[in-house]
Q: What sequence folds into this?
């Protein structure tokens, strides 16, 4: 504790002993005036000392904050976290191996959410970039269920533990890169915004009024689940509890008899439908959480102006049916060897805008204000399609194809 201030002594009125005896003594009135003046100065000095004492105590108990820094809280360059949402193994691990091998290991990290108990080691993958990269904890993912979103949140949470991770890309096990690592890294790190496909579908029947008021209807959004988030937005997704609780309760895929024809296709995809035991023919709110959660959350949080409202992952949709309500033919098409030719891949790379007919909006693809191609990745690639991309050297040096002997 700082010392108490000592009282200011009142000076004596007796003249100094060395004063000449012949000096004229001041009058009584003069002495009274001098005493009053000195007492006035004492009254001013004492409060000032007390103020300085309080200021000293405040500064000791409230140290000044460290100066802000714009650098990431870790040494080295920022990293891109590649987050794979897999059913079990990664059938295109050889393609990603070539992609990562031609990159800088200090600029990326890999995380995989797979089936509980599945381990990536030498017996399950030929790429060392995936060894032990599965999450320590995972959930069984059912297609059309909130568990899909739960798995995504777990991936973001795991990647956020590394402060060097600054960009977070969500990918499926059938996704493949369209460019080499250097181009992809530069593109992602240059973007100050998250890339989230988000739009309002006025004809959408998936919103459940029971979600209100936490999720207002005017904040309900739809879009692709394959997003790229900056660190700030990844923290928002991981930190959310209330909106996800509503999704867990009210946003589920309801399988009716009209949709049972898709069961075979769902099994081929590796996901499981949960069929309601009662009222299968009743009208229900058919909701697919992964197509709404991130978009709606950011809409509620007022973050839409911080987004590029599109996706980085190209999908070719089968639109062979003339009936828009016919969902049996509305699904992603798989790229095979022929459709993964350089001509087809270059056609995808040349796309620089996306039309959203339901909003009468055209999204011109930009990165930090500069016009860029829209897509860095594509799905769904078959094994032969991935081989074709490797052969053409679209993502790296041709010598990368020699690594296939390890798979």
A:
């Amino acid at each position: 504790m700082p010392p108490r201030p000592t009282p200011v002594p009142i000076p004596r009125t007796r003249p100094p002993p060395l004063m000449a005896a012949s000096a004229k003594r001041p009058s009584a009135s003069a002495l009274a005036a001098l005493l009053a003046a000195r007492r006035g100065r004492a009254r001013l000095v004492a409060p000032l000392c007390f103020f300085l004492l309080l200021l000293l105590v405040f500064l000791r108990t409230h140290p000044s904050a460290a100066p802000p820094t714009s650098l990431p809280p870790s040494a080295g360059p920022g990293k891109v976290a590649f987050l794979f949402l897999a059913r079990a193994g990664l059938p295109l691990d050889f393609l990603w191996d070539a992609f990562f091998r031609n990159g800088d290991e200090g600029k990326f990290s890999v995380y995989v959410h797979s089936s509980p108990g599945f381990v990536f080691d030498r017996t399950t993958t030929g790429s060392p970039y995936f060894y032990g990269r599965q999450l320590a904890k995972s959930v069984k993912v059912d297609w059309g269920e909130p568990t899909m979103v739960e798995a995504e949140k777990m991936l973001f949470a795991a990647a956020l533990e590394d402060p060097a991770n600054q960009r977070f890309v969500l990918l499926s096990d059938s996704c493949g890169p369209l460019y080499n690592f250097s181009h992809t890294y530069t593109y992602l790190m240059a973007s100050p915004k998250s890339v989230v496909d988000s739009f309002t579908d006025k004809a959408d029947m998936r919103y459940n009024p029971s979600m209100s008021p936490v999720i207002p209807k005017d904040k309900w959004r739809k879009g692709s689940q394959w997003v790229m988030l900056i660190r700030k937005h990844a923290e928002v997704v991981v930190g959310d509890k209330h909106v996800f609780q509503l999704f867990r309760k009210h946003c589920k895929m309801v399988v009716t008899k009209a949709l049972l024809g898709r069961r075979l296709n769902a099994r081929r995809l590796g996901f499981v439908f949960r069929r309601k035991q009662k009222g299968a023919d009743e009208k229900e709110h058919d909701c697919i959480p992964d197509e709404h959660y991130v978009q709606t959350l950011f809409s509620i949080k007022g973050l839409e102006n911080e987004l590029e409202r599109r996706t980085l992952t190209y999908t070719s949709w089968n639109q062979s049916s003339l009936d828009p309500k016919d969902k049996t033919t509305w699904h992603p098409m798989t790229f095979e060897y022929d459709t993964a030719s350089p001509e087809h891949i270059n056609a995808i790379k040349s796309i620089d805008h996306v039309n959203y007919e339901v909003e009468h909006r055209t999204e011109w693809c930009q990165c930090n204000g500069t016009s860029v191609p829209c897509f860095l990745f594509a799905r769904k690639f078959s094994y032969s399609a991935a081989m074709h991309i490797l052969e053409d050297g679209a993502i790296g040096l041709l010598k990368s194809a020699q690594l296939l002997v390890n798979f």
